[in-house]
Amino acid sequence: AQSVTQPDIHITVSEGASLELRCNYSYGATPYLFWYVQSPGQGLQLLLKYFSGDTLVQGIKGFEAEFKRSQSSFNLRKPSVHWSDAAEYFCAVGARGQNFVFGPGTRLSVLP
Amino acid sequence: DADVTQTPRNRITKTGKRIMLECSQTKGHDRMYWYRQDPGLGLQLIYYSFDVKDINKGEISDGYSVSRQAQAKFSLSLESAIPNQTALYFCATSSGLAGYNEQFFGPGTRLTVL
User: Fold this and answer.
1) A105 to chain B nearest CA, in Å?
2) Which of B48, B100, B109 best probes binding to A when mutated, by most A CB atoms within 10 angstroms?
């Protein structure tokens, strides 16, 4: 069965610092991978997605993620965090004909 | 205007009451989903529908039912609400025409069962 883990429940970084949020998945076939962000009181917004091709994908708001098949990982990165990035981040895995499986989420706090 | 809307946005109810949460979409998608979000658990799939005549149970369907009234409308019902159904509920849509299933989410309904 598909599964997604996000090892960090809560991360705190200073504004301007770099960020990496970890995501590991377990899936038998080639997965489709997604990162969503949930700002307080809001729904989920898609940051970026990977289906095939270049393993480094660019998303909105300056985020990027790298798919590493050998490590079953799809980590999210941002070179310089802004205070408005404080939110909860969810990694999800899907596949053709399959439903999404979401990770438990990582809450990001940003210090001024 | 939002592509996926949910009503109500907030609801407080009592144990044993019947509750309906509604979802509408203007994206023209054929697939719709209901999720429940609890802190530390991510999103869990309650029910999903790939078209008007197709309804499927998700991971946690017990205590819930759904109705797909039209392609654009998908309602979630709690027949007899209980306190552990207190959660944030999200509706989502996707297109079956695409080879992948990127999902688009509504703003959520916060439900409190006393």
Assistant:
1) 6
2) B100
CA distance B7 to A105: 25
Q: Kindly list the residues of chain B whose beta carbon comes within 8 Å of any beta carbon in chain A.
A: 4, 33, 40-45, 48, 58, 90, 92, 99-108
pLDDT in tens, A87-104: 999 999 987 667 788 999
Q: What is the per-residue pLDDT across A53-78, written as a single tens digit (0 to 9) for each? A: 889 999 999 999 999 999 999 999 99
Contact list in B for residue A36 (CB cut-off 8 A) is: 105
Q: Is A70 helix (H, G, I), strand (E, B) or coil?
A: helix
B48 to A103: CB separation less than 8 angstroms, yes or no: no
**Distance from first CA to last CA of chain B, Å, rounded?**
33
Q: What angle do CA A88, A90, A93 make, to 5 degrees?
A: 175
The string over A63-93, giving b where at least 16 C-beta atoms fall within 10 Å of a residue's C-beta and e elsewhere, is: bbbbbeeeebbbbbebeebeeebbbbbbbbb
